[in-house]
Amino acid sequence: MKYTKFIVVEGIDGSGKSTICNYITKLLNNLHIYNIIKVHEPGSTPIAEKLRNIIKFAKGEIFSYKTELLLIYAARLQLLDNIIRPNINKNWILSDRYDLSTYAYQIGGRCINKNNIIFLQKFIKNNIKPDIIIYLDVNPVIALQRIKPVLKDRIEKESINFFSKVRCFYIKMVKKNKTIKIVDANKNLKNVKFSVKNIINKLLNV
Q1: Which domain holds residue 181?
Q2: Mean pLDDT in each 10-residue stretch from start to end of the chain (206 residues)?
Q3: 9: closest CA among 130, 96, 104?
Q4: Contact criterion met (CB below 8 Å) for 193 and 174
Q5: Is residue 168 in some structural domain?
Q6: 3-state secondary structure of 127
Q7: What is the CATH number of the domain that holds 136?
Q8: Dmax (CA) of the chain
Q9: Prediction pTM value
Q10: Does residue 182 sit in helix, strand or coil?
């Protein structure tokens, strides 16, 4: 077993990523693993958090999909340079979203050309891959019902059709990548946690 691991939790808005990230932290702590750095995308550094706020809550002018994409990658570069790269070999990293979200939301949801994203990946020199990705699969109708209307941000206010396209792209990626483990997040939290625990135990050979 590697001394450290890079674990990513993925899914559409309302899938329960934050809850599961907290649960994975608890699982690792129970195994006496405490050197865990929790991050979320976009965000997790001072500059990246400001970019996150723009991405999620910008108002007052036309916000193009290309602008959104560039801000996401600017935030990711801050995260990579300031947290992930300096710690990848000495600490566990647990991330709420990473590359897969960009592909699902920007290609699947926004219909942005894949080549633009590949270019940006190369531009920021992102060659760091997770050891495992846990994808929480949930029906968009159920997911959006879990989000309180008064708290919805600019992305969460998108249509069911948008999130259905994002989900379809996630599933398409799951079928191509053995690193991605799918969990049925339509089930109750107890069942979801049980599935996640099995995945983590297999990852750690316990």
Answers
A1: 6-204
A2: 86 97 97 96 98 94 94 98 97 97 97 96 94 98 90 92 98 93 97 98 90
A3: 96
A4: no
A5: yes
A6: coil
A7: 3.40.50.300
A8: 52
A9: 0.95
A10: strand
